[in-house]
Each structure stands twice: as structure tokens, then as C-alpha cells.
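User: Here's a structure from my thesis project, written as C-alpha cells. My advisor, Dr. K., wants to see whether a designed sequence matches the one we expressed. Can you design one independently, without my sequence as a hint?
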């Protein structure tokens, strides 16, 4: 299993944030299917203010490149991504072609210890 943590901002507008949260209470089935098909086993999105943190647990053969290719071939996922793009904005240090930024782990604790 692989683990990833990514960050992204929403537009800093309470109405935009409310709409984003509402959509994520009922994610389209085609989008959920695409997550599983790509090798994502668990996805969690947390929000504080307008900052989003997404945790992924994936199969060992998961890759973001493979996921991106699959997403481009799926019209419903593209529709979802376009819709979500109305609410999202890149974090200030993200490159122009990057939406979600992979974070760097700086501390890890578990009891009992888990492998990294």
C-alpha cells in the first residue's frame, strides 16, 4: 500500500466553500468508480477554512500518471473536474499545471510503530 497527502485551496468565499462541501456529500457514482479503478483504496478530504487536505491510500501499482490518463478518457470525470475547478484555486507555490500538491511528511508517530 502507498500513502499520499495532498493540499489544495478553495476560493475564499463562504458560498463557494458551502457548494464544494455539498457536492462532496453526494459524489457522482462514476467518479467514485474511477477512484477505485485507478487503485485508490481510501480517500479522505479534510478542510480548514479554504485549505483542503486529501489523504490517499492506494494499491502498490497506483500512479498519478495512470490516474490522469484514465481521467482524461472518462467524460463524467472530466465533467466533475470542470465543476470542481469552479470552486478550487491552486495554493500559491503550486506550478501553473498543478492542482493538488503532494505534501512532504515531516513527522510520523504511531503506537505501535508502523512502517513508513
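Assistant: Designed independently from the structure alone:
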Amino acid at each position: 500500500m502507498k500513502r499520499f497527502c495532498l493540499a489544495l485551496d478553495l476560493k475564499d468565499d463562504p458560498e463557494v466553500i458551502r457548494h464544494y462541501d455539498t457536492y462532496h456529500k453526494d459524489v457522482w457514482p462514476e467518479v467514485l468508480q474511477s477512484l477505485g479503478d485507478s487503485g485508490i483504496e481510501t480517500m479522505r478530504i479534510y478542510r480548514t477554512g479554504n485549505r483542503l487536505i486529501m489523504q490517499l491510500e492506494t494499491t502498490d501499482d497506483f500512479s498519478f500518471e495512470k490516474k490522469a490518463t484514465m481521467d482524461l478518457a472518462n467524460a463524467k470525470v472530466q465533467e466533475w473536474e470542470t465543476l470542481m475547478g469552479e470552486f478550487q484555486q491552486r495554493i500559491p507555490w503550486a506550478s501553473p499545471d498543478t492542482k493538488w500538491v503532494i505534501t512532504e511528511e515531516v513527522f510520523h508517530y504511531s503506537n505501535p510503530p508502523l512502517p513508513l
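When you compare it with your expressed construct, this may help: The first strand starts at residue 2 and ends at 10.
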